[in-house]
Amino acid sequence: MKMRMLIVPLTLSLIAGPALAEIVIKPVRSGNSNTNRPGIVVPGPADSGFRGTRQKPQVLELLNGDHLQGTFVDFHLDTGATWRHPASKNDFKFDAASISTIHLHPRGALNLPAGQNCTVKFRTGDQLMGQLVEINKTHVILSAWYSSNSLRIPREKILSIHPGSRSGGAIFEGPTGLQGWTQSGKKIGAQNMRLNGANIQIRGGFGRVGAAAGWQYSNNSFISHASGSQIGRKFEKLPDSVSVEFDLSWASSPSLVIYLFSDQLQAQKGNAYIVQINNSASCMMMKAPSSQQTSLGNQSMSTLLRGKTKAHFVISADRKGKTIMLTMDGKMVRKWTHTSAPLGGKGKGIMFVSHNTSMMRISKMRVTQWDGQVPKGNAFANAGDELLDVIGTSTGKAKGKLKGLRGGKVNFDATENLGLVLNVSLEKINFISFAGAKLEKRKLEIGDVRATFSTGGEFIFRLDHWTADRVTGMSPSIGRVDFDPAVFSSLQLNLNKKRGEDY
């Protein structure tokens, strides 16, 4: 809920021209507030499971762009969401049809319980984490600390399994704001001021006070309307093998340049690998001191982009292996390698540069460690479905038929090796891909919500109830679900509806 105030002196000091200021007042919890009433604080499976104890204020966003800090109390399919604010004596009731997103902001980073580090990726793009217990002819059984029952997942619903997945915990997920990002060589701090004990946020945007040239932040997205806009960030824990995935939407045609392993957050400077996405995908290696660029090859994308206004891209790079791969909507566009001795990228920066004068939007960004997996599908091929299961280990891959898993052993018939039956310890398996599995477009139903996990990944299901200790609903993939709310970091409702004031 936006609470707007007309503050003339402040407005005059901020406005340099005729633009109007929009000020969002975020009240701060007073010392006299009743904090003993129960709410959903998302503490995690155990206090020791989280690093850090301070709880960030939760935020309720409405479809029209209004937002309110406070505490999420509960959700019921019939009555909507209950929200608590420290300045109000009574709780608020919000119609479910008016809500965009509820940001839960769990305390700190979750340390997964032992063995709960297997990622199951669904053909619909959903992900679940837990302990892999069994694979039989029809189902995969996953034991998850956040579920009251073992999860029985039909094999035909699964794209791949990643035991001991290092990509379960994301290095970065967002965006959630501009803070910590750098534009045109200047790092952006918290865009907040304080007035009379309240937090005041100047909402940047074109034609508004606080607007600046470059990428703007709105509704969990970075948006650019100008060529040359650049925004980047350095990640201290960026590994040598990394995947950067994001949704990209555009008004006319895309023209985006991505810098990987950059040691300078400025375009055309320093050491980096550069991937360009437009009608022709290209990859270059840039090396200091002259910032000379060496082309690694081009790939036409005009047929792939024709008629589209959005797509999901993944850029996977192995700095030591000198390999870069571009994937669009689950299919590989191009894989580049180079044999020259010097490395192109020597830093820990990732940067996005717009080469477009029309609108482009980046959202659902996720940075993880790349597990080396390459998608089966080629974006330019119409080959039939892969007929064999595939398992990958540190020493290579094997194709054949996965008979099952029990007692920590994978029973695999390597039909490409004259019927050799392998009994491989699960600890040695990097991934399992199922025959014929490919990404599918999900049809959203009324009442579907997208829940984002603190450990990374998303899961869409129909939400019935959400209380302080349990989340219940129905999934078309696994049936009834009964989750602990501690596993979720945000909840997005009304997935088919337009969001925010800008579009």
Q: Which CATH C-level class of the domain at 172-369 is it?
A: Mainly Beta
Total beta strands: 41
Shape label: globular
What is the topology, as strand order, of the major beta sheet?
12-11-10-9-13-36-32-33-34-35
- The secondary-structure class comes to mainly beta
| Biggest pleated-sheet summary | 10 strands, antiparallel
Distance between the first and last residues' Cα: 19 Å
The CATH topology of the domain at 172-369 is what?
Answer: Jelly Rolls
Q: How does CATH name the architecture of the domain at 172-369?
A: Sandwich
**Portion in strands:** over 45%
User: Overall mean pLDDT score?
Assistant: 78
Helix-residue proportion? under 10%
Uncertain stretches of 5 or more adjacent residues: 1-36, 41-53, 190-212, 381-385
What is the tally of helical segments?
2
Alpha-carbon Rg, integer:
24 Å
Oligomeric state of the chains in view: single chain
The CATH superfamily title of the domain at 172-369: Exo-inulinase, domain 1
Explain this structure to me?
- With 503 residues, the protein is mainly β.
- It is 2% helix and 46% strand.
- The strands form seven sheets. The chain has a ten-stranded antiparallel β-sheet with strand order 12-11-10-9-13-36-32-33-34-35, with no helix packed on it.
- The longest helix has 7 residues, at 8-14.
Task: Annotate the secondary structure layout.
Layout lengths: L7 H7 L8 E4 L23 E2 L6 E5 L4 E10 L3 E5 L7 E3 L4 E5 L5 E2 L7 E5 L4 E9 L3 E5 L7 E4 L3 E5 L9 E3 L7 E2 L2 E2 L4 E4 L2 E5 L13 E3 L2 E4 L5 E5 L6 E10 L5 E7 L9 E6 L2 E8 L4 E9 L1 H4 L4 E9 L4 E6 L2 E7 L11 E6 L5 E10 L19 E5 L2 E11 L2 E6 L5 E6 L3 E5 L14 E6 L4 E9 L4 E5 L3 E5 L4 E5 L11
Antiparallel strand pairs: 1-18, 2-8, 3-4, 3-7, 4-5, 4-38, 5-6, 7-41, 9-10, 9-13, 10-11, 11-12, 13-36, 14-31, 15-16, 17-18, 19-20, 20-31, 21-30, 22-27, 22-31, 23-24, 23-30, 24-25, 25-26, 27-28, 28-29, 32-33, 32-36, 33-34, 34-35, 37-38, 37-41, 38-39, 39-40
